Every structure is written in C-alpha cells, then in structure tokens.
Amino acid sequence: MDLTALTPVQRSLWSRVEELWQLGIAQDPEPVRRALHPDYCGWVTGTDAPHDRAAAVASVGPGSPRILGHRLEPLAVSVFEDMVGVVHYRYEADVETTAGAGRSVTGRWSEVYLRRNGEWTMISVSGGPDGER
C-alpha cells in the first residue's frame, strides 16, 4: 500500500496505529487505557471469546512479553464520514521470551476506531498471530 496516496485523515488514522504500537512497547498501561474506548471489545484469533478494555490494557502492560522491535505493513486504511476508521495490516514483531531470548511473531490485525474531537479512539480489534486460526 502506498502511504503517500492516503488522505490527511487516513494518514492520521495510520499514525494512530503506529502510536499504539509504541505505547505497547513502552508497557505503560495508562496511555493505552486512554487510547481505548470504555466500551471497547476485541477478539484475538484462537481465543474462545472476545475481550474487554481491561484485558486489552493488561495484554500490553508490564506483565506482558516485551516487544523488542516491530514492522507494520498496512493493507487498507479506510475512513467513513470522518468519524469511523478501519485499518487492516500485517505485523512482524520480535518478542522477548520468558528465557530472555527473542522470537519473531507474525500476524494480522483489523482495527476499528472512532474519531472524536480530532482524536482516534480504538473501539474494536480482531486478529492476532499467524497460525492461531
């Protein structure tokens, strides 16, 4: 996907995706909590049921595996009526294991955002690591 072809609003949405990955790397739960809608609901591939905001925040907090590096490949960035954004992308992340070594994880996410007062708030996500489907 050619990011230079995105509209300014689409670019702001993609920037939000990149920003949320940086928040995950920092493992600071409070900015992540603020970035998610209070009624957020997501579903990670391979799990039995959707999860709520608290579970999403915990998944990137200090007790979660540390992300050592990552690469994102946007596949589609859509904005509807300047209010709702949908992003589909692939990722590759180097994640620290419990033994302290790194391992590479690939996967894909579909994320839905609500834009209020010029800021994108995540309302839903679906996807996860490859091989979990």
Automatic annotation (TrEMBL):
Residue intervals of the DUF4440 domain: 15-122
UniProt cross-references to Gene3D superfamilies, sorted A to Z: 3.10.450.50
Superkingdom of the source species: Bacteria
InterPro entries in UniProt: DUF4440, NTF2-like_dom_sf
Record-given protein name: DUF4440 domain-containing protein
Organism annotation: Polymorphum gilvum (strain LMG 25793 / CGMCC 1.9160 / SL003B-26A1)
Organismal lineage: Bacteria, Pseudomonadati, Pseudomonadota, Alphaproteobacteria, Rhodobacterales
